[in-house]
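Request: Have a read of the protein record below and say how the chain folds.
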Amino acid sequence: MAGNVADNVTDMYASLRSNVSMLGQILGDTMRTHLGDSFLEKVEQIRKLAKDSRRGDEAAREQMLELLTALPDEELVPFAKAFNQFLNLANLSEQFHTISRNCDELVCVPDPVEQLLGRMLNGRVDQTKMLDCLKTLDIDLVLTAHPTEISRRTLIQKYAAIVDCLAEQENNQLSDRERQQINLRLRQLIAQIWHTNEIRRERPTPVDEARWGLSTIEESLWHAVPDFLRQLNDQVQERTGQQLPIDIAPVRFSSWMGGDRDGNPFVTAKVTQEVLDRNRHAAARLFLKDIVLLVGELSMEEANDELKAYTNNSCEPYRFVLRSLRQKLRDTIDYLNARIEGHNPEVDKSTLIWQERDLKAPLEMLYKSLCDCGMRLIANGLLLDILRRLACFGIHMLRLDIRQDAGRHCDVLAELTRYLGMGDFNHWDETEKQAFLLRELSNRRPLIPSNWQPSADVAEVLNTCRLIAKHPAKALGSYVISMASKPSDVLTVLLLLKETGCTHPMRVVPLFETLSDLNNAATCITDLLDIDWYRGYTKGMQEVMIGYSDSAKDAGVMAAAWAQYRAQEQLVAVCNQAGVKLTLFHGRGGSIGRGGGPAHKAILSQPPGSVDGRIRVTEQGEMIRFKFGLPKLAVQSLALYTSAVLEATLLPPPEPKQEWRNCMERIAAESVSAYRGIVREEPDFVAYFRAATPEVELGKLPLGSRPAKRRVDGGIESLRAIPWIFAWSQNRLMLPAWLGAGEALQAACQRGEMGLLQDMEREWPFFSTRISMLEMVYAKAEPNLARYYETCLVPTNLHHLGETLRQRLDLGIKVVLELTKSDTLMAHTPWNRESVKLRNPYIDPLNFLQTELLARTRKETSETPASEHVQLALMLTIAGVAAGMRNTG
């Protein structure tokens, strides 16, 4: 299975090549042991034919197809598993290569913070201003559990263990015996992976997803955060002579796992309660491990007067304090265990770590005492790491956001006003709604009668609000309102929180996610901030969420990107005018079609003034693992975010010229017209989409807890952005990530604006990032494979649409190459280009097999259902293609 990947990777990646070959060889040996030489030879033959087919050898292609279609049922699953696992191991090798000691300089760029500090402090930014900005950075990465993570948690843990082995192998001082032991461990891990079912048998619950998010923190981020802050402190101290505060936390983490109930009936108030308890339990457990270690370290006797007095002159004052904390943490864990098991034990909260200060104050006292007594070196060890973890994660680990659809809140008030004989809230106009809401927000008497028995859906919304009221503000993040469009959408949530007893001012955040909502966002926020009561509630802070997934699905990536840009500009102006600090929450996905892409570039391409030291960004699905799954990778990602936000704040991009704006307006208008002309107006589109992609079959995969559609009986418009992207990536057309863009750029060229476009690409970060993202998806698109899906799966009368789509893809590729003056896509990012090339010979056979399996399953009847082998192999091909493409949705 290892083959010779040298054809696909240049010599500069020798260590990567070596690891890919080694892991592939071990995988091949595992297959040979359990399936025999003949099976392995067939796999190798198909792999080599796929490579030859890539070079244009039609005979090789036909021979490969014959072998694939002739696979007996009992070989379908192991064949799909073989290619699937090779792609996972190739991903792993690449991931490790970026943090390897042997990493090539073209792949492993210098530390972004180090580079930025050098540029800034070379006369461009005042040192004091830079330090003040750094100390107040507020970067909130929001982990979300959308169904894009194909890999099971048990496999992810085995992959991490393989990375540990690869790191150990880089030690040049290893003895032969030690190398043999590492090789044995690798063979054991790959054998374990081979014999583990890659596909979940059941959908994960929202609690399962939340536990997956916590595992990322426990296995990686818990170690990465203090490592990153120590590195950051050293860099700042070297250049300025100043140290960072011990409680600095430029990056914090929130979560939607267990809090996002938009369209997910499985996220209930009971589920959210359990997730909040599990979050706190995980934090207590990890802090307990740290405190136990610290008890062993802080054995010294000398202390300052404050600590002596606190410990009654104990001969081991530091251990005296730490033993007390150790017991409180143990008691906290016992209490939370009982809560998670469904009990509600009575307990004296003073015996627990119940507030952040219960842990922070004693630890800070120990830190100060060590420093006062000349032991700063000791203080800046594990104790400082714990204090910085506390600053980042708190005692709740993750701040949990709540998300709900605006219509669900309106339905609560509509049912209530009907019960009270006041009419139907849903039938009132915006002026009437606002007048009612503001009157009730200022009224001290309860609005909800104690004897009212609401419907189940209404009761669930109210139970969620009551749950929020019971928990401390630091356990919770924002209350996000999806499909928000009017001030009353925000005021409605504030009234429900008031009526259910919430006393802390929770951030209530409108999410603008369709093209029309983005265009109307500034007007909505202006109207909100014009309300005196609301201005008082905000205390000078306003958060707004920008939706990338649904806006791109609504209007296409180019028009959506420009609408997002203009909405941010207008929101900045509105909040500046009102004297309010704006925090923009970017709802990005992992894939380009959902606003994804390199975070550093994305942040630096935002409008000037839109970052200003504060930003929230979703990290979705498999991107959490790719960015934060390994401690060293996580340190790199934290550095990228920190440097990007610091740079966007202190060295913002230029204001776009008016001629650039005018050009983008034309491009946006033409791209949305071209996009909707296909997706909405082409009568055959829905039928073609469902035939040419595994969209229907994806809905049956046990990937995430949330249904694929907002409405079971809905069409494309109700399909979530994730399966929409996922389906098109499976047949390799990648349509949502480019449709409309090429047509609009071509129209600009035909108007004689090529020179203008090249100026924009060279000088405007927003536009250059957009073109770079287009290059990436064009490079991943495979029109010939998409045509094969069409030939095998789509009725002949619909083939005309496929031809149209492939022509538009070709048009887009040509115009982008002309714009960038290049003969090759991604010429300026050879690492990414080679990465795509490396995978293709392994993804292609999975695609060809997938079409065969889709054809078989679609022919099944109640009398002749597809075999279990066919169904499982189909799921494995979907998982394998997702692994190869590196972003599923």
The mean pLDDT is 90.
